[in-house]
Prior knowledge:
Layout: H1 2-28, E1 35-38, E2 41-57, E3 60-63, E4 69-74, E5 81-82, E6 87-92, H2 97-129, H3 135-164, E7 177-179, E8 184-188, E9 196-197, E10 210-213, E11 218-225, H4 226-229, E12 237-242, E13 249-257, E14 262-264, E15 267-276, E16 288-306, E17 311-312, E18 318-325, E19 328-333, E20 335-339, E21 343-348, E22 356-360, H5 370-379
Helix pairs in contact: 2-3
Amino acid sequence: xxxxxxxxxxxxxxxxxxxxxxxxxxxxxxxxxxxxxxxxxxxxxxxxxxxxxxxxxxxxxxxxxxxxxxxxxxxxxxxxxxxxxxxxxxxxxxxxxxxxxxxxxxxxxxxxxxxxxxxxxxxxxxxxxxxxxxxxxxxxxxxxxxxxxxxxxxxxxxxxxxxxxxxxxxxxxxxxxxxxxxxxxxxxxxxxxxxxxxxxxxxxxxxxxxxxxxxxxxxxxxxxxxxxxxxxxxxxxxxxxxxxxxxxxxxxxxxxxxxxxxxxxxxxxxxxxxxxxxxxxxxxxxxxxxxxxxxxxxxxxxxxxxxxxxxxxxxxxxxxxxxxxxxxxxxxxxxxxxxxxxxxxxxxxxxxxxxxxxxxxxxxxxxxxxxxxxxxxxxx
Length: 380
């Protein structure tokens, strides 16, 4: 019984050995590689680069007061359409105590001067009527009285300006009334009634009461990398895609390229601007993010091949492999033109009838994971 058992173990061992040897032989045997082919075809290629940025009004201004004070009235709100000269706000002046004191003192002095001038005039008028003094001498007192009256009127106006920011002669041109300097849309009103505002001067930019812009004239402002800016030229066509408006292409034309780059997170970027040519009844809000496709070069109805078919020799010259027989290929140098990253233009070296070596057939079909092949081998 033991002898039979030993013989059985030997047979099983030899069987496993033969099976393993055969399995490894079949697995190690290399299958012939069969390549697919592709042909050149006629198409169009557009070579472009992309700039990121936003859409902004061409003419956006900040409305600021001409004097300091407190917002007494606001006449506009964001989104409202206004015309040049329309009222935006009214300022209530808070007088400076020093200026107020000086203006009141000036008014008091003007009253005293007028009282003295009036007395001199009345006294000398009697003498002039009695022909005691000449008309030439009396003229001096007449002039002094007129000057005193004018100074009193000026002092009163000055005091009113200090107190209220407006004089009796200014009328509608009062500095307390803030008006728009352009026609357009109110983008923002960053103040409220009761807020203090400061006039613009040498030392202070002043408080902005409202932002107003002409929304009919919009521009794209963006940045391009230094590796692309050398390819740009003024007048190039751009196609804008707005993040807030889907499936809408907006044409624009490049009108500005910055002569100086700026460091943006370690990369040198150059600012560009492009005029939006047509909005096609779209309402574009200021500040929409946008991507601009800049057309560097475009060719229509040209002979192209897939860029994946290209190969390069040690001298970086492009070539392809052309089928000469059944899975027989020969190297052929070619001349290429523009490329969009997917397809490349063929200037010479390839015709439409030529069959160009592509990837092996096995690469076109998804292969089973190695773990599945392993389990299959083990189960057999």
